[in-house]
User: What shape does this take?
Amino acid sequence: MWKAAILGFQHLLAMYSGDVLVPLLIGGALHFNAMQMAYLISADIFMCGVATLLQLKRTRLTGIGLPVVLGCAVQAVTPLSAIGTHYGVGAMYGAIISAGVFVFLSAGWFSKIKHLFPPVVTGSLITIIGFTLIPVGFQDLGGGNVAAKNFGDPKFLLIGFLTMAIILGLSVFAKGFMKSLAILAGILIGTVIAGAMGMVSLSAVGQASWFHLPQFFYFGTPKFEWSSILTMILVSLTTMVESTGVFFALAEITGKKLEEADLKRGYRAEGIAVILGGLFNTFPYSTFSENVGVVQLSGVKTRQPIYFSALFLILLGLLPKIGALATVIPDPVLGGAMIVMFGMVGVQGIRMLQQVDFKDNNNLLVSAISIGLGLGVTVYPQIFQALPQSLQIIMNNGVVIGSFSAVILNVLFNMTPRRETSTAQAQLNTTAQGESQPH
Assistant: This one.
């Protein structure tokens, strides 16, 4: 049990910075004061634990039953900030609740399109998810703020690469339980070394309160404004696509075959999590791809550590002072760990693509174009800045545009009647030629 608890803490650290980033960005955009920000972060962490439990525990209606961790959907930052600025906080939370209802009700329909995700699509999607997240890791490696004058400071790079070296060294040379703790050990040792270099501040711990209970409608009652609701439904569609990729990646790692009913329960659980996010005045929640790398690297594929991770998240949400301890980890340390984890996710996608027949030029084009679009949009999201805001929400996300590309190109190239007929004819001709050969 204690080993599972430590592994659960490792999962928590892997997702913590990415999750806390969302309330910091949205709260900052809406000019929340220190007390409001403290509530926002605490309630968000608490709800991450609740949302994770909804996915872990399989019931008749909900739960994917895979080792998944849920956190704030980062693609919701820009639209939620815009909604809150133009229509008020109430409209923001009304849109989140409406989007959650949409996800729950559309789960059955969305799960029926499983045939649209063969290995050429899912492999490309997982590759995109991993490699489009690597720039986030590099940003943290350089200090977190690209605009800062000290971005890329040699001491940041030293700490980041040292953290990577510790993780890699333990992954290669350690044995047993210590091997599975490589990421956690790298983060903790990196933080201690950074502290000795004066890069760790405990001021956030001193300012945080000891206990804070999340409550309904803390920032006000929700208001339902149609354009805000439509915007968040579009965002929810993008998170469902990304979650689908994560589900298939974890199924591949754990050796579980996903059925339509599994996907339906997974989407419903996310829908309920999004609704609760709106009710508790936090955010929409979706499956975190960061933790796929932890599962892959640690080799521990059971749900037990994730249950501990969910419990820790709930406790941290109730005890802000303890939760603030995780915020003292320097960005370069997190960046070094992220590069390893996200790289593992990308390579997991490449492993899935090994199942694909790339002698078929159509499969080659589906994967090449989709991965190229996903990485290109990630590097230059401003290429779509002239489009309407509603379209930018979709087009600015490399994972989403790469996913849509893979699905659409696969349908056009591999699933049209003409393609199926020509494939069948080619197989028939091959069989006929084989039978006509003299024995």
